[in-house]
């Protein structure tokens, strides 16, 4: 049995193949996005769900499904294996019988990005790379900085000017070189990064331009399906910035289905803020590619605020269409209400993460999600990453009490009767 069953890169666009030993970003021939292929017949022969039952709950529990062939190159901070929490309060309010939250706020740097960077940095280490660059709205930069620092890789992060000061500070805290990136559209960033690959040979860790990061997001499918008794949910909801999370999860479910470990695949739901929602707009128009749309400065959901997608968001839209899912745009007001609702269930989520629950509420109201559907929302990042927003929106209590029994008794009587 192999430690990894990965066999090659394949280009989405021209279908050309490349060896995995090469430090590639996009296709050297046509510039298309690269996907990692696996020896599925061998996996079918060698692997079974029971093989994983006794392993430690972490991202690396599923190492056969990743392109790391040298275990000594694994760079880990304890990512993955986060709890799948069944909702009590949100489910009741929405009238859903089975609503679950995949709580990635508990990851080492506070966001789901740790899955991708653990794998991508491990792969870079296996390739012998000593430096790399990524673009970030905040969370990815922190994660890359932490894992690169641990691996001894010299990290540079271009962090967008819209990122809040705490996120910028965390990137530097973990040891990366940081530069504030100014731009008018995400298109400018994509063009700059793709040109840097071609002309500078610069290895990058940006989702999709890097062909490895989203492979780690397949772990959502493995972890969720296992916890549900090797069944996929009916609906899986994921906030979308570049879209590595939803694409990776969909790939994971497809693998499990091909292996025969699950009998059905979920409908995948991509969520973006109303102010800048190129994916929902393309979906509504039935297009395979998303055009530039919206204004990223007009939403509180910083982590998923992008007016255009890398290579038109073709992968994200393909996941939505192929799964029979949908794309939703939600307002800031709906996001704030979803944050409050998540708080009742004990989860402190940043606005981008709460967007998923806002979309579920919307879809239940419209009938797109049925009351008896089993629904999983990925909660991608901690609300503490935008703590100022919670401070602004949740007023401080005006109740006061002196340190005396009589005052305490009066307070509790007023509260509890």
Describe this structure as you would to a colleague.
The structure is a single chain. By secondary structure, the protein is α/β, with parallel strands linked by helices. It has one domain: 3-Layer(aba) Sandwich (Rossmann fold), CATH 3.40.50. The N and C termini lie far apart (65 Å). It has helices spanning 40-46, 89-94, 113-127, 139-151, 165-173, 186-200, 218-227, 244-259, 278-284, 314-323, 332-344, 351-366, 387-393, 405-416; strands at residues 6-11, 17-18, 34-38, 84-86, 98-103, 131-136, 154-160, 177-181, 235-239, 267-273, 326-330, 374-379. The strands form 3 sheets. Strands 4-5-12-9-10-11 form a 6-stranded mixed beta sheet, sandwiched between helices. It has a 3-stranded antiparallel beta sheet with strand order 2-1-3, with no helix packed on it. The chain has a 3-stranded parallel beta sheet with strand order 6-7-8, covered by helices on one side. The longest helix has 16 residues, at 244-259. The chain has 14 helices and 12 strands. Helix content is 37%, strand content 15%. Helix 3 packs parallel to helix 4 (139-151). Belongs to the threonine synthase family. InterPro entries: Ser/Thr_Dehydratase, Thr_synthase-like, TrpB-like_PALP, TrpB-like_PALP_sf. Its cofactor is pyridoxal 5'-phosphate. The modification N6-(pyridoxal phosphate)lysine is found at residue 113.
């Amino acid at each position: 049995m192999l430690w990894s069953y990965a066999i090659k890169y394949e280009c989405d666009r021209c279908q050309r193949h490349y060896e995995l030993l090469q430090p590639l970003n996009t296709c050297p021939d046509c510039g298309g996005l690269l996907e990692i292929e696996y020896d599925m017949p061998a996996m079918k022969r060698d692997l079974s769900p029971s093989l994983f039952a006794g392993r430690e709950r972490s991202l690396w529990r599923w190492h056969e499904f990743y392109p790391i062939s040298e275990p000594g190159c694994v760079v880990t901070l304890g990512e993955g294996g986060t709890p799948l929490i069944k909702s009590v309060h949100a489910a009741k309010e929405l009238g859903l019988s089975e609503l679950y939250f995949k709580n990635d706020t508990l990851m080492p740097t506070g966001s789901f990005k740790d899955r991708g960077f653990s794998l991508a940095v491990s792969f870079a280490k296996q390739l012998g790379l000593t430096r790399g660059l990524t673009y970030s709205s905040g969370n990815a930069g922190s994660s890359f900085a932490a894992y690169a620092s641990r691996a001894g890789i010299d990290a540079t992060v271009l962090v967008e000017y819209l990122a809040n000061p705490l996120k910028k500070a965390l990137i530097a805290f973990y040891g990366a070189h940081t530069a504030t990136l100014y731009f008018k559209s995400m298109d400018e960033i994509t063009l700059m990064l793709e040109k840097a690959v071609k002309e500078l040979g610069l290895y990058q860790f940006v989702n999709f331009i890097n062909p490895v990061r989203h492979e780690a997001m397949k772990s959502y499918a493995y972890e969720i399906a296992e916890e549900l008794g090797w069944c996929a949910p009916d609906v899986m909801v994921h906030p979308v910035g570049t879209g590595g999370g939803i694409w990776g999860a969909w790939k994971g479910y497809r693998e499990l289905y091909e292996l025969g470990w699950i009998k059905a695949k979920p409908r995948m739901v991509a969520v973006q803020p109303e102010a800048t929602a190129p994916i929902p707009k393309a979906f509504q128009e039935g297009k395979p590619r998303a055009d530039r749309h919206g204004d990223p400065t007009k939403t509180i959901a910083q982590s998923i605020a992008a007016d255009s997608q890398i290579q038109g968001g073709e992968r994200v839209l393909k996941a939505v269409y192929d799964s029979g899912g949908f794309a939703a745009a939600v307002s800031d007001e709906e996001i704030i209400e979803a944050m409050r609702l998540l708080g009742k269930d004990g989860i402190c989520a940043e606005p981008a993460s709460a967007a998923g629950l806002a979309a579920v509420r919307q879809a239940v109201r419209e009938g797109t999600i049925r009351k008896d559907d089993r629904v999983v929302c990925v909660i991608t990042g901690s609300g503490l990453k935008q703590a100022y927003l919670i401070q602004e929106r949740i007023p401080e209590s005006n109740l006061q009490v002196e340190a005396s029994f009589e005052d305490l008794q009066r307070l509790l009587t007023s509260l509890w009767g």
